[in-house]
């Protein structure tokens, strides 16, 4: 977050708001060249009972760097497309900033800080927060990368004790030989 004209906004104001070796470019922390960027995030649902409304936010943690020893974080806004069901029982929803194969401002805004985030082909953990109605049970989160020479990463899900709507990403691993979440 940075403040401008008395209003706090998401993003950075200068390089000091970014992890070591990152720089602030147009209020976004940008990685040095050579980092592997997120291409898409896929969330798989086990069940969703009474889910009359949907929406999930995600925080992902990538490569550990100075200042972020548990991984460079990125955060999405609410992932939910109007007029469709992304988190129905047994379904998977993919978020990549595109709609029907083309760049889309609304889709990109949904992904927020995770859009092309420089987690450098490392998914170390994170959290999901259910923002919809009903009882949602996610199965996994998969992240693939803009570099087709690296493997996609997938995490299992564990419920956070005392909060029915929060889940932790655990047991994150590359899913060789797959380079895409599919």
Please describe the topology of this protein.
Blueprint lengths: L1 E3 L2 E3 L13 E3 L2 E3 L7 E12 L6 E6 L11 E3 L16 E4 L2 E2 L2 E2 L1 H7 L13 E6 L4 E11 L7 E7 L6 E9 L8
Antiparallel strand pairs: 1-2, 3-4, 5-8, 5-12, 6-7, 6-11, 9-10, 11-14, 12-13, 13-14
Structural class: mainly beta
The helix/strand order is: EEEEEEEEEEHEEEE
Give average pLDDT, whole number: 92
Strand fraction equals 35-45%
Please report the first level of CATH classification, the CATH class of the largest domain.
Mainly Beta
| Basic shape | globular
CATH superfamily of the largest domain: PLAT/LH2 domain
The domain tally reads: 2
- Could you please say which CATH topology of the largest domain applies here? Lipoxygenase-1
Radius of gyration: 16 Å
Main pleated-sheet profile: 8 strands, antiparallel
Low-confidence stretches: none
> How many angstroms separate the termini?
33 Å
Question: Architecture of the largest domain, CATH level 2?
Answer: Sandwich
Helix content: under 10%
**Total number of helices:** 1
Number of strands: 14
Q: In which order are the strands of the major sheet placed?
A: 7-6-11-14-13-12-5-8
């Amino acid at each position: 977050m940075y403040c401008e004209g008395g209003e706090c906004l998401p993003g950075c104001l200068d390089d000091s708001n970014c992890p070591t070796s990152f720089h602030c470019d147009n209020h976004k922390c940008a990685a040095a060249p050579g980092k592997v960027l997120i291409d898409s995030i896929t969330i798989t649902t086990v069940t969703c009972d009474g889910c009359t409304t949907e929406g999930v936010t995600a925080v992902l943690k990538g490569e550990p760097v100075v200042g972020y020893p548990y991984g460079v974080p990125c955060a999405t806004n609410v992932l939910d497309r109007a007029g469709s069901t992304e988190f129905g029982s047994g379904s998977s929803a993919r978020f990549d900033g595109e709609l029907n194969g083309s760049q889309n401002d609304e889709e990109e805004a949904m992904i927020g800080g995770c859009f092309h985030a420089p987690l450098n082909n490392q998914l170390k953990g994170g959290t999901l927060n259910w923002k919809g109605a009903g009882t949602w049970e996610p199965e996994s989160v998969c992240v693939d990368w803009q570099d087709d020479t690296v493997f996609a990463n997938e995490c299992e899900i564990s419920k956070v004790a005392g909060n029915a709507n929060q889940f932790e990403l655990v047991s994150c691993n590359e899913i060789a030989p797959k380079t895409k979440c599919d």
